[in-house]
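Structure in, sequence out. Go:
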């Protein structure tokens, strides 16, 4: 099942050289795990509900194990300080939904569980 690394990042107003080095090197850390950018550093075009400060990063992986392997890998761990010294934010790893997922079926299971 597809998994994702999602970041809500808050870059400082002036980007440092380290951020550019991070960006230049990150793809090489993703490649062994089948990771690819789906969204990279885009500010929200419209916030329809709530607030969403910062820039969004979404990276897709073939499996959760691939996402975890990438994040925990030595090459990526070595890059993290280049980003975190210049950007605060939140990063999470999350499973996607399986092929054929139906929200109505999930609602039915939840309804049955509470009744």
């Amino acid at each position: 099942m597809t998994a994702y690394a999602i970041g809500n990042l808050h870059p400082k107003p002036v980007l440092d050289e380290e951020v550019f080095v991070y960006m230049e090197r990150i793809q090489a850390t993703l490649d062994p795990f089948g990771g690819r950018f789906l969204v990279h550093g885009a500010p929200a075009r419209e916030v329809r509900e709530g607030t969403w400060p910062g820039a969004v990063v979404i990276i897709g992986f073939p499996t959760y194990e691939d996402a975890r392997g990438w994040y925990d890998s030595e090459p990526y761990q070595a890059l993290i300080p280049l980003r975190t010294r210049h950007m605060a934010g939140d990063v999470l790893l999350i499973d996607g939904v399986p092929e054929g997922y139906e929200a109505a079926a999930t609602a039915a299971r939840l309804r049955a569980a509470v009744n």
